[in-house]
Amino acid sequence: MSYPTQQDIDAMREDGHEAATIAQAQARQQLGERASALKQAIHLAFADVQLENGTGLHEAQGLDDYADAQTCAAYRAKDEKTDWRRISMDDMNLCSSSLSFFNAAGMRFHLPAFMQGDLDSQVNYDLIYHLTQSISMEEKFALLDDAQRAVVVAYLNLRLDDEDFRHEWEHIFNALLGYWNE
């Protein structure tokens, strides 16, 4: 789901697209501008977050695969621990089930990378489920500070305004009124 640029909209006008189609493109362009601003907010809110005692990306994948403690320790040794921006999109897509196995510190460290990947449309995971329907939300998001929670709320509100996510709207709406409103 990419967002049209002003050049795209100008080209649509030149090509004679209908006014309703151009209006839809303009609405998507505004979502794109909000997504761009949100990516900056993510970077600011999570700038200094490190993994610390959190579950690492590959380590969590090992937990999902029922790996033994030694194997999980080997996976953890190769996990990024200091800068979530260095986590590759390929690794996040390969380890997408890790979202279910992070402890609170692991979630705080990896969440900005997963949100960024989703905003860049480079993902094969369902982040919204983990932000809206997971049975362990209170536990998983316990370490988020106010600024980080505000970024998650902004992310969910962006998705609530996006027609591409209409099948998730009920869950998003309920989570915004419930857990993320606390």
What features would you highlight for this structure?
single chain; 182 residues; mainly alpha; 10 helices
Task: Give a short overview.
This protein has helices spanning 6-14, 19-45, 57-64, 69-78, 89-94, 104-119, 127-132, 137-140, 146-160, 169-177.
Please identify the structural class as seen in this structure.
mainly alpha
Give start-end ranges of low-pLDDT stretches.
none
Termini separation: 31 Å
Report the mean per-residue pLDDT as an integer.
94
Helix content: 55-70%
Write the layout of secondary structure elements.
Blueprint (H helix, E strand, L loop, with lengths): L5 H9 L4 H27 L11 H8 L4 H10 L10 H6 L9 H16 L7 H6 L4 H4 L5 H15 L8 H9 L5
Helix pairs in contact: 1-2, 2-6, 2-9, 3-4, 9-10
Structural features, described:
- Helix content is 60%, strand content 0%.
- It contains 10 helices and no strands.
- The two termini are 31 Å apart.
